[in-house]
Protein 1
Amino acid sequence: MLDLYGYSVITLDNGFLKVVRSANVKTSPGMIADSSRPGVGDELVTRIVPLENVPARDLAPLLRQMMDAGSVGNVVHYEPSNVLILTGRASTINKLIEVIKRVDVIGTEKQQIIHLEYASAEDLAEILNQLISESHGKSQMPALLSAKIVADKRTNSLIISGPEKARQRITSLLKSLDVEESEEGNTRVYYLKYAKATNLVEVLTGVSEKLKDEKGNSRKPSSTSAMDNVAITADEQTNSLVITADQSVQEKLATVIARLDIRRAQVLVEAIIVEVQDGNGLNLGVQWANKNVGAQQFTNTGLPVFNAAQGVADYKKNGGITSANPAWDMFSAYNGMAAGFFNGDWGVLLTALASNNKNDILATPSIVTLDNKLASFNVGQDVPVLSGSQTTSGDNVFNTVERKTVGTKLKVTPQVNEGDAVLLEIEQEVSSVDSSSNSTLGPTFNTRTIQNAVLVKTGETVVLGGLLDDFSKEQVSKVPLLGDIPLVGQLFRYTSTERAKRNLMVFIRPTIIRDDDVYRSLSKEKYTRYRQEQQLRIDGKSKALVGSEDLPVLNENTFNSHAPAPSSR
């Protein structure tokens, strides 16, 4: 009757009975029962149950579900000592004790060891534990009713503990999983779209070696490790990779291949080399000679007065100039004006030369290359240079000639960074033969070289380097005292003045090409420009293209037609 009104009776230690509200039973002092005094009927008791095999925290939720919905009892677990504290009516607590006795035997009696022949114990343990975890999460089953699986790497075995049915289900799965793979299933062919197969072989071999080091102790000694059977071969004809490995290695290598076989960006590098040279020179001098006294002679004029005087005397004697005349070689190599007066013992020679050199160079080399790929551009000519001369026993002269390439050279390696920046490693050279040099040892070369690395945003034009050179030289040769006399001193003096200016600037502009549309647009732009120059030349409005003959005009519809799409394998 008291239970109907929400009251319960508690037996105290002194034998008295105490009536309390059922809601306060959990906190009220009651009889501590044990196996000798379990209590009977609706008597309220508290029972402490130690567990030997099952974790108390796993068993407590299950026991709470077995108590009556309107029961006044409670189940609490104390994890440090692995005990359960049960409070409630004696009849209910005694039922829970029977359940605990039957459940607290799992562990020592329900273990099983399964040796694997083909599969990896570590890999299967991970797969099965994940499967059990997902099943447990969906069904909300207590962990003690699920199997536990541990892998032994040394013996390549699985240790399974749990209920009989759970172990049987896992054993059935292992029979299907622990099978030998066919050799055909271990070999795959990967057709590459962008990367070069021969280049990836070394990378993938390194990756497989790294996997082998990480998995070196994951197989038992008696079985052959799948990592030791990795074979990677490249087929250049089809640009494909043939890989033989087990399934787990195949999946890891396939992920690496997918990340490496991507379309690399291309870079259009356009350079502008501008060089302007302007030089002026003036050589003016007077030389005197007397047969009996001597001569005022300046050898740096290129025309000594004594040689000229001997040549004139020989001319008067023979009536002509031959190769034997002393002035023959002298006048043939001289540039400028020479005027003289030779009569009797006296002779005077006036030499004058004015020079004006201008040289404008504009070169615009351009080249397209892949990201991180060295590209070179070379337009010029090979100039023969005498490197040696030897006289043989038959008085024959044998000359050794080397050739030096002059012109415009461009070497560039672009690296596309995150965003639109490009790191350029550049080697730029512009060389030419100096036509103003009269050296008898061979040609003189003008060489301008830049070797640099710059970071440029795509589409931006930057200057790589420049040179502003202003050269001035004045040389005076004169007769002491006489050359210093005002006005008259000019007759006893030789003056050489030279001045040159040179401006050199090198600009560069990279453009990142990430897709076919950009590449097609840039190509069409340059193609159209050269076609227009052809057309203007034919119309007589421009001389942009060298040559007098009429060249056929480039096809206007070259970039209007689309090539058919490539077939897929």
Protein 2
Amino acid sequence: MHLWKRIVFIGIGFFESLTVTGIIFGWPALVHVFQLEGIFSHFCLEDAKSQGEYNTNGTEFANTSDTNSSIIIRCPRQDNMFGLLYSLMIAMYGIPSALVGFSLDYAGLRFTRVTSGAMMIGGFIWVGLATAANPWMVWPGMLLISFGSNGMRLSSLQCGNAWPAKRSTIMFCYTSAHAASTLVFLMFQYANAAGISLRSTSFVMSAVCGITLISSFILPKMKVEYQPKLSLGNNEVNDADNNSIPLNKINTDTEESKGNQSPSGKEPDVKIPLGLSIKTMSFVFHNVWLVNIYMTRFYVTSFNTWAWKTTDDPNQIAFYNSFSGICLIISPFINPIGGLITDFMTKRADKKNDPIERLAAKFRAPAFVLTLASALTLAVYICKISYSPNAVYVSIVLISIVRPISIASLYSYVQLRFYPEHFNRLTGISYTIISIVGLLQYPQYLWLFKSEESYLWASYTFCFMILLTFISPGHLLVTSLTRKFAAKEIRNRK
């Protein structure tokens, strides 16, 4: 592939990762805007009216400035409604992932991108039309945005195939940008403070999403081909030169076949059933590890309610969101280190002569970042045990790092541990599983904030669940297991 085409494809994926793919995870800032706009405030007014006064049943009227120009009306019923909406958004974001994965493989990249982009455009139009008088419009709007942004996320990963040798680093850059895309809703908050309405910012974002429709016709119709470097003896061969080299002279210990070499010396063309990836110990442990993804999402679900328990000042809540934005700006410069480490481990594995050991070493390459993601997620939830502003700040710093690391390590792990041709479907299936489990977020949210005692028990339970995720990187460090997995994969390739 020509260099300019690689740059264009990777640039498109990065732009979309930065603007739309992780936008729903900026939910706390958008909730703040919704509260300022009076969305679902009628629940609080109804409760206050039924009680005959404004400060019963948890209803609060908080000034956002000394001039009393803006007032936030909040109450438990409103908080619960926002919690329910976000729980369903997360489900809509992830459950159709398997469908999106199969769509990419069979309907093609362009169809998937155009469909997802159209959903996001429609979603922002619905949100822009929502007011205190018709708050229900945020429901179809946010659900369409959730579905569409997930489709764009999985589609943008295809762009990383344009540069196979740097794919892990590209994935970490994409997921850092994906995490930074939560700043979009923080921009909504700043725009609202500057007097720009929710309607105006929503319509601007629908126009930005329209750019994805144009770029869909720049990218290939079906997929960005994954063309790794091949080896000819001890010399690497660039993918751009593959067509000029006879297949019978090319060793098949490529990144795509992961060390397998057929007896004839020709590149094997064996169709591997998806079940061979799914029915493995590694895939089972991988789904346990996905608890980290689930818990980073639940952090967003519960953040606003937790933050309000540390302060009664709406300006402090706004500052929490601003501080989160600052951390997200810094994190893209830190998080690619994980990709560089994985790429380094993969290249070191390529130097091994024994094909089984070479493939086993590649399986072990993502173990470090998987462990790091679990450790950081555990640290976040230890912070959440406390109602302290300092704990909030520390958790914001940690979550801004762990979210992109956990997502990127998921992608690199699936790419390296399983058959590459299963990547789209396995990624989709994994996200579908964790999103179905994510339907528990709303009852989990209610349990967490039911009482002080339930808060502690729930927090300890979450920490225990995260501890279980260390089993996934742990089993990769057992050399006898990875060699067994490698030998089996090489046999299946023949």
Protein 3
Amino acid sequence: MRSGGAGHLKHQFIDYGSVSEANSLAPGRDSRYARWGKALFDLGLGLMLLPVLLPVILVLCVLVAMDGGLPIFGHKRIGKDGREFRCWKIRTMVVDAQERLKKHLADNPEAAAEWQQNFKLENDPRITRIGRFLRKSSLDELPQLFNVFRGEMSFVGPRPVVRDELLRYGLHQQVYMSMRPGVTGLWQVSGRNDVAYDQRVSMDVQYAREVSLTEDVRIVAKTVSSVLSLTGK
């Protein structure tokens, strides 16, 4: 989920520069929690949240459907072991979002450079009015609960990326693909809106090294705080 930069978690982020180092950071080698405890954590938390979140998802879907188009969409992302899956979200953009993005980038060189750098835009012309609220509150990502139940995602992990974006991970692609992508993660609760992409990669690598129940609980708690403060984008 999206979150802002207030109250960063205290971590030192290290740039890992070799293939051998990157491969050695994959979780689950020595951690019983990473091997099987994390899946139990996801299942337990998911079952607790389902009765609360399902009605919210249904109401939001009705509101989004009122402006036309399907309320939920799935976008292909890269998951554990490089497998593709559909990451579900509540639609926050206009129906012709891809065409509108292409035209906007073609007409605005600065926006094109921003997109190339971060794969997102500060002022995105595709986002609807209700979509801005959903993104600000991260409520658009609630359907990823079902990705968690399907074993495609975890509550905590690296953000799911598209195949082209995975190239930005460089030598650390194997670290990314050694974990299930997360609904939230260390990057999202450590100044997400102000973090450069290479720093995001370092945070994902750092999380892979330190994955534990304590860390996951801390990140989930921090995410809840950030969502309530509406610091997403």
